[in-house]
Amino acid sequence: PEKVLVRPAILQMPLGDFINNITSKYSSAATETSALEDNICLYMEYLNIGNYDFLVPLMKDTALGLHSYMQFAQDLFPYEVVRNLWFGDGFTVGKLHFDAYENFLSMVKGRKEFTLFSPKYSENLYEGHIREARFRYNESARTLSRTELLESTSMVNSPVDIDKPDFSRYPKFKQVAERAMTCVVNEGDVIYVPSFWWHEVKSQPSLESPRVNLAVNHWFQPFYLKSFPCKRCKLKVNIQTYRDVLLKYMKINTGES
Known about the structure:
It is a single chain. This protein is an alpha+beta fold. The protein contains 4 helices and 14 strands. The strands form 4 sheets. It has a 5-stranded antiparallel β-sheet with strand order 2-3-12-5-10, with no helix packed on it.
Protein backbone atom coordinates (compact mmCIF):
# COMPACT_ATOMS: atom_id res chain seq x y z
CA PRO A 1 0.00 0.00 0.00
CA GLU A 2 1.07 3.59 -0.64
CA LYS A 3 2.35 5.64 2.26
CA VAL A 4 0.04 8.51 3.25
CA LEU A 5 0.75 11.28 5.76
CA VAL A 6 -2.39 12.07 7.74
CA ARG A 7 -2.90 15.70 8.68
CA PRO A 8 -5.16 16.36 11.68
CA ALA A 9 -8.59 17.87 11.35
CA ILE A 10 -8.83 21.62 11.99
CA LEU A 11 -11.13 22.96 14.70
CA GLN A 12 -11.80 26.61 15.44
CA MET A 13 -12.63 27.54 19.03
CA PRO A 14 -11.92 30.28 21.59
CA LEU A 15 -8.61 29.89 23.39
CA GLY A 16 -10.42 29.41 26.69
CA ASP A 17 -12.39 26.46 25.30
CA PHE A 18 -9.20 24.97 23.88
CA ILE A 19 -7.51 25.12 27.29
CA ASN A 20 -10.60 23.75 29.05
CA ASN A 21 -10.78 20.79 26.66
CA ILE A 22 -7.14 19.96 27.36
CA THR A 23 -7.21 20.31 31.14
CA SER A 24 -10.60 18.60 31.57
CA LYS A 25 -9.06 15.32 30.37
CA TYR A 26 -7.43 15.01 33.78
CA SER A 27 -10.27 16.48 35.80
CA SER A 28 -12.45 14.22 37.93
CA ALA A 29 -15.33 16.61 37.20
CA ALA A 30 -15.07 16.17 33.44
CA THR A 31 -18.31 15.29 31.66
CA GLU A 32 -19.30 14.44 28.12
CA THR A 33 -20.21 18.07 27.53
CA SER A 34 -17.13 19.57 29.16
CA ALA A 35 -14.54 17.92 26.97
CA LEU A 36 -13.93 16.15 23.72
CA GLU A 37 -13.37 12.40 23.78
CA ASP A 38 -10.28 11.17 25.59
CA ASN A 39 -8.90 9.77 22.33
CA ILE A 40 -9.02 13.19 20.64
CA CYS A 41 -5.70 15.04 20.87
CA LEU A 42 -5.73 18.82 20.63
CA TYR A 43 -2.70 20.69 19.33
CA MET A 44 -2.08 24.32 18.47
CA GLU A 45 0.88 24.53 16.07
CA TYR A 46 2.79 27.16 14.11
CA LEU A 47 1.09 29.97 16.06
CA ASN A 48 3.10 33.11 15.27
CA ILE A 49 3.59 34.82 18.63
CA GLY A 50 4.27 38.15 16.97
CA ASN A 51 0.67 38.29 15.75
CA TYR A 52 -0.81 38.17 19.25
CA ASP A 53 0.09 40.85 21.81
CA PHE A 54 -1.19 38.81 24.74
CA LEU A 55 1.40 36.11 24.01
CA VAL A 56 4.43 38.41 24.08
CA PRO A 57 4.91 38.06 27.89
CA LEU A 58 5.38 34.33 27.33
CA MET A 59 8.76 35.13 25.79
CA LYS A 60 10.02 36.00 29.27
CA ASP A 61 9.57 32.33 30.19
CA THR A 62 11.58 30.99 27.30
CA ALA A 63 15.29 30.44 27.42
CA LEU A 64 16.11 32.82 24.58
CA GLY A 65 14.41 35.65 26.41
CA LEU A 66 15.56 34.68 29.90
CA HIS A 67 19.19 33.52 29.85
CA SER A 68 22.10 35.62 28.69
CA TYR A 69 24.07 32.47 27.80
CA MET A 70 21.72 32.02 24.84
CA GLN A 71 22.89 35.33 23.39
CA PHE A 72 25.31 33.38 21.22
CA ALA A 73 22.34 32.09 19.21
CA GLN A 74 21.29 35.57 18.24
CA ASP A 75 24.91 36.53 17.56
CA LEU A 76 25.41 33.60 15.19
CA PHE A 77 21.94 33.69 13.67
CA PRO A 78 20.83 37.35 13.71
CA TYR A 79 18.17 36.89 11.05
CA GLU A 80 15.12 35.61 12.90
CA VAL A 81 12.18 34.50 10.78
CA VAL A 82 9.43 33.75 13.30
CA ARG A 83 8.67 32.65 16.85
CA ASN A 84 6.02 29.93 17.11
CA LEU A 85 3.89 28.65 19.96
CA TRP A 86 3.27 24.90 20.22
CA PHE A 87 0.54 24.04 22.74
CA GLY A 88 -1.30 20.77 23.26
CA ASP A 89 -2.29 17.98 25.59
CA GLY A 90 1.04 16.21 25.16
CA PHE A 91 0.03 13.19 23.09
CA THR A 92 1.28 14.21 19.66
CA VAL A 93 3.99 12.95 17.32
CA GLY A 94 5.70 15.00 14.64
CA LYS A 95 6.85 12.40 12.13
CA LEU A 96 10.35 12.35 10.69
CA HIS A 97 11.03 15.52 8.68
CA PHE A 98 13.42 18.46 8.41
CA ASP A 99 13.00 22.24 8.45
CA ALA A 100 14.90 24.67 6.25
CA TYR A 101 15.65 26.92 9.25
CA GLU A 102 17.98 27.05 12.25
CA ASN A 103 15.68 25.99 15.07
CA PHE A 104 15.90 26.72 18.80
CA LEU A 105 13.05 25.20 20.82
CA SER A 106 12.42 26.17 24.45
CA MET A 107 10.36 23.83 26.63
CA VAL A 108 7.95 25.61 28.97
CA LYS A 109 5.67 22.78 30.17
CA GLY A 110 5.95 19.04 29.66
CA ARG A 111 8.70 17.40 27.63
CA LYS A 112 9.59 16.48 24.07
CA GLU A 113 11.74 13.61 22.88
CA PHE A 114 13.69 14.31 19.69
CA THR A 115 15.13 11.59 17.47
CA LEU A 116 17.63 13.15 15.07
CA PHE A 117 19.52 12.10 11.95
CA SER A 118 22.21 14.00 10.08
CA PRO A 119 21.32 15.45 6.64
CA LYS A 120 23.98 13.21 5.14
CA TYR A 121 21.58 10.30 5.62
CA SER A 122 18.81 11.79 3.47
CA GLU A 123 19.13 9.04 0.89
CA ASN A 124 18.86 6.39 3.62
CA LEU A 125 15.74 8.12 4.92
CA TYR A 126 14.13 8.20 1.46
CA GLU A 127 13.68 11.98 1.42
CA GLY A 128 10.68 13.11 -0.58
CA HIS A 129 7.09 14.26 -0.61
CA ILE A 130 4.38 11.89 0.63
CA ARG A 131 0.70 11.97 -0.32
CA GLU A 132 -1.30 13.84 2.30
CA ALA A 133 -4.73 12.94 3.63
CA ARG A 134 -6.85 15.62 5.26
CA PHE A 135 -9.62 14.98 7.75
CA ARG A 136 -12.68 16.84 9.05
CA TYR A 137 -14.11 16.56 12.56
CA ASN A 138 -17.89 16.70 12.88
CA GLU A 139 -18.48 18.30 16.29
CA SER A 140 -22.17 17.35 16.56
CA ALA A 141 -21.65 13.71 15.56
CA ARG A 142 -18.13 13.58 17.06
CA THR A 143 -16.77 11.70 14.08
CA LEU A 144 -13.74 11.98 11.83
CA SER A 145 -13.96 11.64 8.07
CA ARG A 146 -11.40 11.97 5.28
CA THR A 147 -12.14 14.95 3.06
CA GLU A 148 -9.40 14.77 0.42
CA LEU A 149 -6.19 13.06 -0.61
CA LEU A 150 -3.52 15.40 -1.95
CA GLU A 151 -0.76 14.39 -4.33
CA SER A 152 1.95 15.42 -1.87
CA THR A 153 2.74 17.22 1.35
CA SER A 154 4.10 20.77 1.25
CA MET A 155 6.95 19.76 3.53
CA VAL A 156 9.55 17.03 3.05
CA ASN A 157 9.10 13.86 5.07
CA SER A 158 10.60 10.42 5.45
CA PRO A 159 8.25 7.48 4.88
CA VAL A 160 10.27 5.36 7.33
CA ASP A 161 8.60 4.38 10.60
CA ILE A 162 11.62 4.61 12.90
CA ASP A 163 9.82 2.73 15.71
CA LYS A 164 8.89 -0.24 13.50
CA PRO A 165 11.06 0.03 10.39
CA ASP A 166 10.22 -2.10 7.37
CA PHE A 167 13.70 -3.00 6.14
CA SER A 168 12.32 -4.99 3.23
CA ARG A 169 10.65 -1.86 1.91
CA TYR A 170 13.33 0.62 3.00
CA PRO A 171 16.57 -1.41 3.07
CA LYS A 172 18.86 1.64 3.02
CA PHE A 173 17.53 2.74 6.40
CA LYS A 174 19.08 -0.33 8.02
CA GLN A 175 22.53 1.18 7.40
CA VAL A 176 21.76 4.22 9.56
CA ALA A 177 19.08 3.01 12.00
CA GLU A 178 21.57 2.89 14.87
CA ARG A 179 23.01 6.31 14.03
CA ALA A 180 20.01 8.12 15.44
CA MET A 181 20.57 10.61 18.26
CA THR A 182 17.94 10.92 20.96
CA CYS A 183 17.49 13.95 23.17
CA VAL A 184 14.84 14.55 25.83
CA VAL A 185 13.97 18.23 26.27
CA ASN A 186 12.55 18.96 29.72
CA GLU A 187 11.02 22.12 31.14
CA GLY A 188 13.55 24.95 31.02
CA ASP A 189 15.70 23.19 28.42
CA VAL A 190 16.52 24.43 24.94
CA ILE A 191 17.38 22.25 21.96
CA TYR A 192 19.13 23.50 18.85
CA VAL A 193 18.18 21.63 15.67
CA PRO A 194 20.31 22.78 12.72
CA SER A 195 18.66 23.39 9.37
CA PHE A 196 18.00 20.24 7.34
CA TRP A 197 18.61 17.90 10.28
CA TRP A 198 15.97 15.19 10.33
CA HIS A 199 13.91 15.00 13.51
CA GLU A 200 10.91 13.15 14.86
CA VAL A 201 9.29 14.66 17.95
CA LYS A 202 7.18 12.90 20.58
CA SER A 203 5.44 15.07 23.17
CA GLN A 204 4.45 14.24 26.73
CA PRO A 205 2.36 16.31 29.16
CA SER A 206 3.73 17.84 32.34
CA LEU A 207 3.43 15.69 35.45
CA GLU A 208 1.84 18.40 37.55
CA SER A 209 -1.40 20.27 36.91
CA PRO A 210 -2.25 21.69 34.46
CA ARG A 211 -1.06 18.68 32.46
CA VAL A 212 -0.20 20.26 29.13
CA ASN A 213 2.67 20.49 26.67
CA LEU A 214 3.87 24.00 25.85
CA ALA A 215 6.91 25.08 23.86
CA VAL A 216 8.18 28.10 21.95
CA ASN A 217 10.53 27.82 19.02
CA HIS A 218 12.62 30.38 17.13
CA TRP A 219 13.34 29.90 13.46
CA PHE A 220 16.33 31.72 11.98
CA GLN A 221 17.45 32.01 8.37
CA PRO A 222 19.43 28.83 7.52
CA PHE A 223 23.21 28.90 7.59
CA TYR A 224 23.17 26.19 4.94
CA LEU A 225 21.05 25.90 1.81
CA LYS A 226 19.93 22.80 -0.02
CA SER A 227 17.61 21.88 -2.84
CA PHE A 228 14.75 19.63 -1.74
CA PRO A 229 13.46 17.11 -2.14
CA CYS A 230 16.87 15.92 -3.32
CA LYS A 231 18.35 12.88 -1.61
CA ARG A 232 21.92 13.43 -2.84
CA CYS A 233 22.15 17.23 -2.87
CA LYS A 234 24.88 18.67 -0.65
CA LEU A 235 24.54 21.49 1.84
CA LYS A 236 26.01 24.82 0.78
CA VAL A 237 26.83 27.79 3.00
CA ASN A 238 24.26 30.57 2.71
CA ILE A 239 26.83 33.23 1.77
CA GLN A 240 24.32 35.81 0.64
CA THR A 241 22.65 35.95 4.05
CA TYR A 242 25.59 35.22 6.36
CA ARG A 243 28.39 37.11 4.64
CA ASP A 244 28.61 39.78 7.36
CA VAL A 245 28.52 37.21 10.17
CA LEU A 246 31.29 35.17 8.56
CA LEU A 247 33.45 38.26 8.03
CA LYS A 248 32.91 39.27 11.66
CA TYR A 249 34.14 35.93 13.02
CA MET A 250 37.00 35.74 10.54
CA LYS A 251 38.25 39.09 11.87
CA ILE A 252 37.93 37.86 15.46
CA ASN A 253 39.92 34.70 14.71
CA THR A 254 42.67 36.61 12.87
CA GLY A 255 42.86 39.37 15.50
CA GLU A 256 41.81 42.10 13.07
CA SER A 257 39.93 45.11 14.37
